[in-house]
Design a protein that fits this description.
single chain, Nucleotide Exchange Factor Grpe, Chain A, domain 2
Length: 164
C-alpha cells in the first residue's frame, strides 16, 4: 500500500498515523477515566443501598420490638399472677425469657430506672413522692424499652421530690 509513495508522502502518512494514534490514546484515556468514574459511582451506589438496607432492617426490627412489648408485658402479668412453684409458671417464664433474649439480640433493651436520676427522655413521671433527694427514680411502675439509642417506650416511674 505504501510502496508506491514518495518519501514526502510517506512522511505525511506517518504524521497522520501518529496523530491518529495520539487521538486513539486520548480516547482510550478518556474511556479509562469514564470507566473509573462509573466504577466509583457504582461503589457509592452500592454503599448507599447497603446503608439503606441496614436502616430498613433496623427500622423493621424496631417496629417488631415495639409491637412485641405488649406481649412481654402480658408474660410478666401472667408470671405475677401464677403460682411460682407450678410447672405452668416455669413454662411461661421460659417462653418469656426466650422471647426477650431473642428481642435483645435484635437490639431491644430494657430501661432500668430505679435509683437513677430522672431523665424525661427515657422516663415518664406518673407520680412524685417526698424524699431526702430530689429528682431520683424511686420506683418503676412500668418498664421502658429502647432499641439502639431510640426510646420505644419510656419507663413509667415515681420520682422523688426533695422534702421541704
Amino acid at each position: 500500500m505504501y510502496q508506491d509513495l514518495s518519501r514526502e508522502q510517506l512522511e505525511k502518512a506517518l504524521l497522520e498515523l501518529e496523530e491518529e494514534l495520539e487521538q486513539k490514546q486520548k480516547e482510550a484515556e478518556e474511556m479509562e477515566k469514564l470507566a473509573k468514574k462509573v466504577k466509583a459511582e457504582f461503589e457509592n451506589y452500592k454503599k448507599k443501598q447497603d446503608e439503606r438496607k441496614d436502616k430498613w432492617q433496623k427500622e423493621a426490627e424496631r417496629e417488631l420490638s415495639k409491637d412485641l412489648i405488649s406481649v412481654i408485658d402480658n408474660f410478666e402479668r401472667a408470671l405475677a399472677a401464677a403460682d411460682k412453684d407450678s410447672n405452668v409458671y416455669q413454662g411461661v417464664k421460659m417462653v418469656g425469657d426466650q422471647l426477650f433474649e431473642t428481642l435483645e439480640r435484635k437490639g431491644l433493651e430494657r430501661i432500668n430506672a430505679e435509683g437513677e436520676e430522672f431523665d424525661p427522655n427515657i422516663h415518664n413521671a406518673v407520680d412524685t413522692e417526698q424524699h431526702e433527694e430530689d429528682n431520683i427514680v424511686l420506683e418503676q411502675k412500668k418498664p421502658g424499652y429502647k432499641h439502639g439509642e431510640r426510646v420505644i417506650r419510656p419507663a413509667d416511674v415515681i420520682v422523688s421530690e426533695k422534702e421541704e
